[in-house]
Design brief:
258 residues; alpha+beta; 6-stranded antiparallel sheet; 3-stranded antiparallel sheet; 9 strands; 20% strand
């Protein structure tokens, strides 16, 4: 049995959408645009005010959006760049080099694989990688992420990692060594890992995905460590990975300015 829709919720979304289109508007203008009765519009607007999504000007009868409404789009923005922009670019990259690639984004004190080509890569040795967690300071992806953060964000993240009791974050409790590793990654221009405790059978290189000063996440190439050395991996796959990075960042920049 199909569940019944909630008409008042639909009307609330219509009013919020109309207000978002204009930036600010009177209840009368919103009622005319949406076709929702003015008395209902007032009740919906009052609910949105109480929930912190909109405000009302003290000197006029106009309503406007509050900062909280931006939170409604943040998850979509992050998912959108991964699924519609980065995903296709990495499919094309895997088609060229045959090794699998991942799209990773930060979640708390770790990186998480959100999209991968492991399922289609001819040379993949792993499956079901979506949702796998990567440590910040001992993965190519994590190093590429933290190394290219703005300095203040980098220092905050390092401080939080140093307070973590998780074994994967132990390196953060040696600030000199952590900063040396981060600095080397920044100068090199990419994160790199060969073997390691978590995935001893693979190596990887990774690059950040940036929009302005914001680092959205990272993309990587993964290979079998017994087949490809770090030197060979960088020599063969860094430039194709950079091409994918440039395509993703250019598309993101164009989308932002539309």
């Amino acid at each position: 049995m199909q569940p019944k829709s909630i008409r008042s919720f639909s009307r609330g979304l219509a009013v919020l959408s109309a207000l978002n289109l204009h930036g600010s508007a009177t209840a009368l203008a919103l009622a005319r645009e949406t076709g929702v009765p003015r008395a209902t519009v007032y009740r919906l607007l009052q609910t949105l005010i109480e929930d912190g999504y909109i405000g009302r000007g003290p000197a006029d009868d106009r309503f406007h959006l509050q900062l909280k409404v931006r939170g409604l789009s943040e998850g979509f923005e992050d998912e959108q760049w991964i699924s519609t922009i980065a995903g296709p670019a990495l499919i094309e990259l895997t088609r060229r080099i045959s090794w699998p690639c991942d799209v990773c984004a930060p979640e708390g004190l770790k990186m998480v694989i959100h999209e991968t080509t492991h399922r289609v890569a001819p040379l993949s040795v792993d499956r079901n990688m979506v949702g796998e967690e990567l440590p910040i300071l001992s993965s190519a992806t994590g190093l590429a992420y933290i190394a290219f953060l703005p300095k203040e964000e980098q220092q905050t993240l390092l401080g939080l990692l140093a307070q973590s009791s998780h074994p994967r974050d132990a390196l953060a409790r040696d600030p000199a060594e952590a900063l040396r590793l981060i600095g080397a990654t920044r100068r090199r221009g990419y994160g790199v890992r060969q073997s390691g405790a978590i995935w001893p059978h693979t190596g990887a290189i990774a690059l950040p995905i940036r929009v302005g000063r914001r680092v959205l996440g990272c993309i990587n190439v993964v290979w079998m460590a017994r087949v490809v050395s770090p030197k060979d991996g960088v020599s063969r796959y860094l430039e194709p990975l950079r091409e994918a990075q440039r395509i993703i960042e250019r598309t993101l920049a164009e989308a932002k300015h539309r």
